[in-house]
Amino acid sequence: MLGPLRRGPGDPTCRIAPDGAVWRASRTPEGPATLRVAPSGAEAWGPGADWMLGRLPALLGELDDPSTFVAHHRIVAEAARRAPGLRLTRTGLVMESLIPSVLEQKVTTDEAYRAWRLLVRKYGDEAPGPAPAGMFVMPTARTWSLIPSWEWHKAGVDDKRAATILRAVRVAPRLEQAASMTPESAAARLQLIPGIGPWTAAEVLQRALGAPDAVTTGDLHLPNIIGYALTGAHRTTDEEMLKLLSPYEGHRHRAARLILLTGRTPPRRHPKMPVANIAIL
Questions:
Q1: What range defines the domain where residue 242 resides?
Q2: Residue 126: Cβ within 10 Å count
Q3: For the whole prediction, is pTM greater than 0.90?
Q4: What is its EC number (predicted)?
């Protein structure tokens, strides 16, 4: 359920402990906080601890309503059967999802995860409480705005993505308000920022608002995964993916999430996206 919030195995804001507990370090409206969630219960530390605990039910899917979801494909029905308790998380924190999503634009996952890891470790704050070593809360909006251009470069972030983040953090309070909007209004507000398009907006809506219909378009891999799972096709466009998901209107993201959980992916038929390390250019 909380897996989509983790930006790679080295994410300094999220850890999965050997005992299965999930640790999250977040910057809440009331300040930094560390949250530990385990089957036995939840604990939180830091100025934002009460805020985190107050929103724990939403984080664990209490506000998600899958009651009207109907599986129209065998593979989706099987995935739903194997994950009967799956709910869509809702963090209520927009910038926490927006910045790493911008870092993931037009680059490989490994590049984006590396940039997020380096920048948060260097400019974030140590996670409060007894958090695992190496956990950090992401930087404040002001700190993001003061990161020198060469530090973005060293983290492998090109000028376009860095500029998008800088534009976003200047209006961070306005963007955070999107967490209490409808998905449609939230997407419209996010996309007022140059550099934030439908792909990035959907990635934020899925995590910050738990939007069940916010299907991601413009992704390099998702259409092919959906197409392969539902029809066996190896190449699928966004338009074809949306047509395949049309029976799930209102729950298209939920259907896509279930399909992703099956692990069914088409055989690779094209070279991997090249990694261009701008930090050494």
A1: 74-88+215-261
A2: 16
A3: yes
A4: 3.2.2.21
Single-letter amino acid code for the residue at 75? I
CA distances from 87 to 104, 126, 207, 239, 253 (A): 24, 30, 12, 27, 12
Asked if 144 contacts 165 with a C-beta cutoff of 8 angstroms, the reply is yes
Q: For residues 103 and 157, is the Cβ–Cβ distance under 8 A?
A: yes
Name the domain count of the chain. Answer: 2
In a domain, residue 280? The reply is no
Output the pLDDT for position 267: 85
Dmax of the chain from CA atoms? 52
User: Is the separation of the CB atoms in 46 and 33 below 8 Å?
Assistant: yes
pLDDT under 50: residue ranges of the chain: none
Report helix, strand or coil for 9: coil
Closest Cα partner for 116 from 136, 145, 90? 136
Q: Are 78 and 54 found together in one domain?
A: no
Domain membership flag for residue 273 = no
Same domain flag for 35 and 136: yes
* 161 and 190 inside one domain: yes
d(CA 141, CA 165): 10
**How far is Cα 143 from Cα 157, in angstroms, rounded to an integer?**
16
Query: What is the rounded distance in angstroms from the CA atom of residue 17 to the CA atom of residue 246?
Result: 38
What one-letter code names the amino acid at 64? Answer: D
Q: Is residue 223 within 8 Å of residue 241, measured between CB atoms?
A: yes
Which neighbouring-strand residues pair with 113? none
CA atoms within 13 A on the CB side of 258: 30
Could you say which of 190, 209, 228 is where a domain stops? Answer: 209
- Amino acid identity, residue 237? T
pLDDT in tens, 241-273: 999 999 999 999 999 999 999 998 998 765 555
